[in-house]
Amino acid sequence: MRAVDIRHGTGAADALFINDDVPTPEPGESEALVKIKAFGLNRMDLLQREGRYPVPAQASKILGVEFSGTIERLGSRPEREFKVGDEVFGLAYGGAYAEYVAVSTHMLIHKPAELSWEQAAGIPETWITALQALHQVGGFQAGQSVLWHAGASSVSLAGIQLSRAASASAIYVTASSAEKIRFCVDEVGATVGFNYKTEDWSAAVRHATHHHGVDLIIDFVGAPYFAPNLAAAARDGHIVALGALGGTTLGPAEVDIGAFIAKRVRYEGTTLRSRDLAYQTALRDLLVEKALPKLRDGSFRVFVDKVFPWQEVAQAHRFMEGNTSKGKIICTIG
C-alpha cells in the first residue's frame, strides 16, 4: 500500500513523502482493516514527525490517529455490529496517514450519512479529547464556568459546543487574534474571549468573573500558563492539562503555589493516546451518547478549516505550523 513516510525517520514538513511500498497491515482478531478516505491532522503529528512525541509501543510508526473510510476486511472476532463495506470513522494508536489502517472495532463508529468523509475524519481525536477533558476528567457540572485555552483549536471548538450543551454558566476562551476570538464567540458560542498576545488574559478573566475565577480550565500550553491559571481559577477550581506546547519546565522565578491551598485548586494532567483500549472504548461510547446525535442533526458542528489532497501533506503540516487555522485540517486520499 501507499503511506506517508518521513525521510531519515524524522524531520521538517518537507521530509514527508508518500512511500509506494509499505506493507498493508493485517487486522487482528478483534480488528478491522479500513480503507481510508480521509484523515485528520493533530499537533501530536507535528511533534512525532520531529521525533519529539512519546509514541505508544503498540502504535504504527506511520503518523495519524483519526480517519474515515470503509471496512475492507474483518478479523475473526470483531464487534458484532460491524461488517465488510460499512462506512466508519474512528481512532487508532497510529497509522492513519495511509491507504489502509488496522484498528480495533471497539474504536470504530458508523459514519452517519449526514456527515462527509472530511467531517467524519475530523471527529474522533478532537471530540473524544474534549469529552475526556470536560466530563471524564474535568467532572463538569451544569452551572459551572469553563475556560478553553487555544480557543480556535479543533479540540476547544468542540469543547465550547459541549460546554454549551452541558449548561455552562459562562464559556471563556483565549486565542491569538481578534479574528479567532470573534469566530469563537459569534460562530461557536463562547461567552467572551481574550487575546493572549495583546492583554493579560488571566487578569481579564478575573475581571470578567468579578474575581470569582473560573471553575474549570482546560490547558494545552503548560509551564507559561501555570501561574496565570492558578490566578484565574475559582475556589475549588479544577485545571486539566492536556498538553505542554509552551514547555514543561517552570522558569527560575519563584512561583507562588499558595493558591493550591488557599483556593483548594486541583491540577490534573491527562492523555488519550497512551490509554489502554478499555479506557478509549468508554470514551468512544461517550462520544456516541453525548455528541453523535447532535452532530447528525446539526446542533453540533465539525469546523473543517482546510482540506488538502494527501499528496500535499507537507503543505498541510506547514499550514498547521502557521497557527492561523480555525478548526480541523484534513487530508483526503483519492
Overview of the molecule:
The protein has 334 residues and is of the alpha/beta class. The protein is built from eleven helices and 15 strands. The strands form three sheets. Strands 3, 4, 5, 6, 7, 14 and 15 form a seven-stranded mixed β-sheet that branches. Strands 10-9-8-11-12-13 form a six-stranded parallel β-sheet, with helices on both faces. Helix 3 (124-137) crosses helix 4 (154-165), helix 3 crosses helix 9 and helix 6 (201-208) runs parallel beside helix 7. The two termini are 13 Å apart. The relative contact order is 0.15.
Unreliable spans are none
Structural class category: alpha/beta
Task: Report the major sheet.
Answer: 7 strands, mixed
Head-to-tail CA distance between termini:
13 Å
Oligomer: single chain
Counting DSSP E segments of at least 2 residues, the number of strands comes to 15
Beta-strand portion reads: 25-35%
Rounded to the nearest angstrom, the radius of gyration is 20 Å
The coarse silhouette is globular
Output mean pLDDT: 96
Count of helix runs: 11
Order of H and E elements: EEEHEEEEHHEHEHEHEHEHEHHEHE
Share of helix among residues? Answer: 25-40%
Topology, please?
Layout: E1 3-6, E2 16-19, E3 31-40, H1 43-49, E4 66-74, E5 87-91, E6 100-104, E7 108-110, H2 117-121, H3 124-137, E8 145-148, H4 154-165, E9 170-175, H5 178-188, E10 192-195, H6 201-208, E11 214-219, H7 226-232, E12 233-241, H8 258-262, E13 266-269, H9 277-290, H10 292-297, E14 304-309, H11 313-321, E15 328-332
Parallel strand pairs: 8-9, 8-11, 9-10, 11-12, 12-13, 14-15
Antiparallel strand pairs: 1-2, 3-4, 3-6, 3-15, 4-5, 5-7
